[in-house]
Design a protein that fits this description.
mainly beta; 9% helix; 6 helices; two-stranded antiparallel ribbon; 489 residues; disordered N terminus; Porin
């Protein structure tokens, strides 16, 4: 079999995956570890609501975007932004993938080290959100958020050749280990309570929880349990072991939407989520105490379980194919013109029954559950260092997997100004360096800007911002007038 290969098609497939999705954040260290994070601190631990140093905080908007992968990176940003013209005749007989992509400023990681690749994309939009300190012991808040994520985990690249030619041979035995592809878009309305349960001169213990009402808007997944097959010389396919689960939203669900759909029309999935956390604080005493600081402690230890929950899409489909020792003489594709007809064709080819692969006329997807530990230490005066560990909770069901991260963030923090430098190990092995700054209520930052700083290739992009308003000023009780007003900080 002769395969016609074009440089344009290869470039669009590989480079397009990277560049077109740079707009997609999961880690926002600059607005979750600060004592002035407000409602954003609840992203990592709901008990942090009790740390609110002011009476209330109103977040107008928080936005974060993230893209990360370990397969295709940018080595020369100028070549990516100003690529060379594509030749009129793009047909080639053979070429080296790495060399060809280098012409466009791209670099491919080693095919064999590591063999398993990932592609992560996230987008989060929060606001408006409100946090209120009811009294010294009790705090309450709520938030709105829109979240979208795509995860391709554990993709095996061992069969991708370093060079491709027109006589590419595809016959042979293949075995693909487990991999996951999940995409989920949803909104959440969350309610947070945090209370202080023990407070004395030396320490404080607090705990909190967030309950989230979830509305799913889109979801799809492919879970490969095992895939072992051989393409024979006569193009027959001998399946030794094949076990795949997949699900999607039935397109008919979207076809039935009104011309001008409202939120209730596109919220085709419903679910519930929960975050639970606790914090232990050792206060500054003696020479370390500073009465001028609104937040004064020596050590803060937090632990939490976040994003426990799932969404059920009644307009979805869940399917599963689990077969061993079967030979396809010819895969029947006649009449495949929709996802439903593809389901029937797959089921008929594997089972001889067009509906046997259907498991349920709904689809359930889990949130990116994780355990987290947060340690914050007051080095001296307004200088702190925060270390946060996020460990995903793996599960076999469909849903987004959160990235494993360890982040150490030294910061200078005051009421009106804050500066920090997050240093991260993404997936516990890939170093990431960022920076953020807060001026009053505006925070802008990134947890991953190595490449832009000239520190190696660009394997992804991360950026976030937050804007809030808080009370500023003190009330003069004698004159019963306000000497200050709400300001952004």
């Amino acid at each position: 079999m002769v395969i016609k290969i074009t440089l344009r098609s290869v470039f669009l497939l590989m480079a397009g995956i990277l560049i077109s999705n740079l707009s997609f954040s999961q880690n926002m260290s600059g607005i979750t570890g600060s004592n002035y994070a407000g409602t954003n601190a609840n992203l990592i631990n709901p008990s942090f609501a009790s740390n609110l140093p002011l009476k209330w905080e109103l977040h107008l908007v928080t936005m974060g975007m993230n893209f990360d992968n370990n397969f295709v990176g940018i080595s020369a940003l100028n070549d990516v932004l100003n690529p060379p013209p594509v030749p009129a005749d793009t047909s080639v007989t053979t070429f080296n993938i790495a060399n060809e992509l280098a012409k466009y400023g791209l670099v491919v990681s080693d095919f064999d080290r590591p063999k398993f690749k990932y592609l992560h994309m996230n987008f989060v939009l929060r606001g408006p959100s409100l946090m209120i300190k009811i009294n010294k012991k009790h705090s309450f808040g709520f938030h709105n958020a829109m979240r979208m994520g795509f995860r391709f985990n554990h993709f095996y690249t061992g069969y991708i050749p370093a060079e491709i030619d027109s006589n590419l041979q595809y016959q042979g035995a293949y075995e693909f280990p487990k991999f996951r592809i999940n995409m989920l878009a949803f909104s959440e309305l969350g309610f947070t309570y945090s209370g202080i349960f023990q407070d004395n001169n030396s320490s404080r213990i607090q705990a909190g929880a967030t309950v989230k009402l979830l509305s799913g808007m889109f979801g799809t997944y492919i879970l490969n349990r095992k895939a072992r097959f051989e393409i024979l010389p006569n193009d027959d396919v001998e399946v030794n072991d094949f076990h795949v689960k997949y699900g999607y939203i039935d397109p008919a669900t979207f076809n039935n939407l009104p011309a001008s759909p409202g939120f209730s029309d596109v919220a085709i999935g419903k679910g519930l989520g929960v975050d639970i956390g606790g914090t232990y604080i050792i206060k500054n005493r003696g020479a370390r105490a500073n009465k001028k600081k609104k937040v004064d402690y020596q050590f803060r230890l937090g632990a939490s379980v976040i994003d426990v929950g799932r969404i059920k899409f009644n307009g979805g489909k869940s399917l599963e194919i689990d077969r061993q020792n079967i030979v396809f003489n010819q895969f029947t594709t006649t009449g495949i013109n929709s996802p439903g007809s593809l389901d029937s064709a797959l089921s008929n080819n594997f089972y001889g029954n067009p509906t046997q692969s259907l498991v349920a006329n709904n689809m359930k997807m889990w949130l990116p559950m994780a355990l987290s530990v947060q340690v914050d230490y007051n080095i001296w005066q307004f200088f702190y260092i925060n270390t946060t560990i996020i460990q995903r909770i793996p599960y076999g069901a469909p849903g987004l997997y959160r990235a494993n991260v360890i982040t150490a963030t030294p910061r200078f923090e005051t009421l009106l100004f804050e500066l920090g430098v997050p240093m991260m190990l993404y997936e516990y092995q890939y170093p990431r360096l960022g920076a953020y700054v807060r001026l009053w209520g505006l925070t802008i930052g990134s947890d991953y800007s190595n490449g832009l700083m000239g520190l190696g290739n660009i394997w992804g992009m991360n950026a976030y911002m937050s804007l809030k308003i808080t009370p500023f000023g003190k009330r003069n009780k004698k004159k019963k007038k306000t000497s200050g007003c709400p300001m952004f900080f």
